[in-house]
């Protein structure tokens, strides 16, 4: 377990800002205690500081997880967000897509979102903007990347993809072993 | 069957009946207008309608008679019809004398039973069974006039067919001919009602012609008519046994209901026969006789007859219930028990050792317990209060077609699922972490643990994280939870669950629980849901029945003892809010439960406190000649047959000192009351100089003093302070206390062991433990 290096921080925050923009600040400066990001086994954990200190009691081999896992660094140094970060992305998300109940299940099986499954979309979403996918009752289902801007979405035919799937809560049962 | 009914409909115009059956009420109304049919009675049979509204109570015909016969105003048409009927009746009765003769010609045998029998159906039956025409055909031949009008509707072809059929039906016996009348597969049970008769039938057919023109009020006339006529004819009707008895009721039932009824009856008869057969198989004796050696040998060679075994289980249980009176002379209880055990093993396929143990645990309820192990427990889910409320969750799930209910008064977060149209482990709600599938029994240890906010908690064998997440939810994501599980793969399940449930205060580790004290101590509360033999969850894993023998249990128990000691070591007695250890297993064996607790009570400075679970059975204080601590009844046992949840054991321990009693005391403790007490006191005296604090010793000192309030009172204050103060100060204080108490104790020891000074008790017990507990701890020592 160690703090992130500058490079890692940069890569990580860049990725994170695609989804929540400036709100990263709110993740770090929290009124309810000091929180920090820690790297462990190439995974980035977001954890309360006192919890992190206690977790340091455990040896590296035996420590599996602490706090919330946000994602991992790939071997090539890029950062990949995991669905476990969803709880922290969803409240701060700048751009969202709401999917119709009929398309909910499709998305939870790992499919992209088609135009015909699109319930609502935040205004002024740019193409390739990171978006949070929600059900119509505002339950976050996952996140992805907008394949079309809001404007384009209006005029495409029903079967075009409007958002690319990146992670969804279905992974909790689909690939529990690979969550971390 | 429906098809036949439709095709054989009363008239050609009646093609729409099909649609009616399909269920359109509107169409029915339309048809009514131009049609000579009475639908009033039929309305009730529509499945849609009946499901919407409860039917009016269906009075058996014989009761209905009275009210029907009550004078009522007849409409002019009704009067006309009545007149017609009477006329017809008269003519029929007149013609009756002739008809049988005619019938003899027609049917071959007829006799007194005329075609009147054939057509002896109420209007209901006509409606129900499209073969009606076929039935009525002979009638048409015989007394043509009366039915002619009715039969006019029927196409010529049909009539021909009908007559053909009746010709076929010209069997030797009249009964047969009746049954032939029904061509469909219902003929076996469709027999004319006992009470209805030919004249009525004529009336009916007549009636129907008219009634459809009329309004619904005809129905009652029909009934009264039926009654009148039937009463008159009753006497000369021959009945067809059982079937006829149901005749009246049947008329009001749907075909499917009738079929069910018939099946039930058949089943009942079969059961009865089987029972009788069994009874004849078994030697019938007043006193049950144990099987002889030969019989036993025989059973060993060939597979035992399970029904026989079951009966024998019953019998042996009966004998054991009142042994002195029902026993066979010269047979001991042991023999009966041996036989019972063997039979239970065969019947439920357990291994002998496990069965023996279970019989010890459940001397009276063994069969209940075994039976309940054959059935699955209800599926229960726990609401994640961090993300949703139970009411919202229940609503969301109900919308998905899940049938559920609150689990009971004792939990505010549990729901029982009766049936679900969707997989409960994959609904969007589940994925969003709104709930967790969790057995009802798994709530209990966490409820007993009662974690407070901002505490440090250790879950020693956490996977798959059900209890951990519950504890985290109770702590509202504050404080710190260490979720440990030795198995790395299973630890992944913890990770998945805590992330899904949105829990952020948890550290997941994969240590061997026994080594955890080396990693971290000073937890406020420790939850040890120990790995166990699983004898409480046989319904989940039937393999337990066979593959758990004495060694496995002993191995489990040994591991559990080690884990519990480790758990106690991880706990901090000086915790302001906690210092509690929960020990739970999903086993019912005392070796894995009471025995383990007893061991911990001896090995560590812990005492049993109430689990604060207001249901469940008390733990055993003695079992198989072993005696356990008196306070063992503060532990709770849960059984599948008694509480409809997995077999479970929960014990709550309070650690009152971080010191570990000297090793030498442990071995000798079991020997005898006196020696043990002395030895312990010796231990305390010897240990006190070395280990400066021995809270235990201190307590004892206070307890033993009956009239030492003066001494103990001033000490109670320092003790309270002590907890707040730093450890070093603590130690000093304690050592003082100990030395004081010991001097007193040595004097008073033999005098008054059992009498306890309340002040001493209350002082030791800082938390919620009731005073009694202390007393009982002490009493335990006396017991040995």
TrEMBL record, chain A:
Primary localization: nucleus
Record-level GO BP terms: ribosome assembly
GO CC list: nucleolus
GO molecular function, one term: RNA binding
Keyword RNA-binding appears in the UniProt entry: yes
Annotated keywords: Nucleus, Ribosome biogenesis, RNA-binding
Pfam families, sorted: pre-PUA_NIP7 (PF17833), UPF0113 (PF03657)
InterPro entries, sorted: NIP7_N, Nip7_N_euk, PUA, PUA-like_sf, PUA_sf, Ribosomal_synth_fac_NIP7, UPF0113_PUA
Localization: Nucleus, Nucleolus
Subunit structure comment from the entry: Interacts with pre-ribosome complex.
Its job: Required for proper 34S pre-rRNA processing and 60S ribosome subunit assembly.
Family note: Belongs to the NIP7 family.
Descriptive protein name: 60S ribosome subunit biogenesis protein NIP7 homolog
Native source organism of the sequence: Owenia fusiformis
From TrEMBL, chain B:
Bias type Basic and acidic residues, positions: 723-745
InterPro entries for the chain: MeTrfase_RsmB-F_NOP2_cat (IPR049560), MeTrfase_RsmB-F_NOP2_dom (IPR001678), Nop2p (IPR011023), RCMT (IPR023267), RCMT_NOP2 (IPR023273), RsmB-like_ferredoxin (IPR054728), RsmB/NOL1/NOP2-like_CS (IPR018314), SAM-dependent_MTases_sf (IPR029063)
Family, similarity comment: Belongs to the class I-like SAM-binding methyltransferase superfamily. RsmB/NOP family.
Biased segments, Acidic residues type: 123-168, 200-220, 230-251
GO cellular component assignments: nucleolus
Active-site residues (renumbered): 586
Subcellular location: Nucleus, Nucleolus
Biological processes, Gene Ontology terms: maturation of LSU-rRNA; rRNA base methylation
Binding site for S-adenosyl-L-methionine: 461-467, 485, 512, 529
Residue span(s) of domain SAM-dependent MTase RsmB/NOP-type: 369-656
GO molecular function, one term: RNA binding
Superkingdom field: Eukaryota
PANTHER family: 28S RRNA (CYTOSINE(4447)-C(5))-METHYLTRANSFERASE-RELATED, NOP2 YEAST -RELATED NOL1/NOP2/FMU SUN DOMAIN-CONTAINING
Protein name, per record: SAM-dependent MTase RsmB/NOP-type domain-containing protein
Biased composition (Basic residues): 45-55, 77-89, 762-784
Region (Disordered): 36-256, 660-784
Compositional bias per record (Low complexity), positions renumbered to this chain: 752-761
Transmembrane spans: none
Pfam family, one: RsmF-B_ferredox
Transferase recorded as keyword: yes
PROSITE patterns referenced in this protein's UniProt entry, alphabetically: NOL1_NOP2_SUN, SAM_MT_RSMB_NOP
Keywords of the record: Methyltransferase, Nucleus, Ribosome biogenesis, RNA-binding, S-adenosyl-L-methionine, Transferase
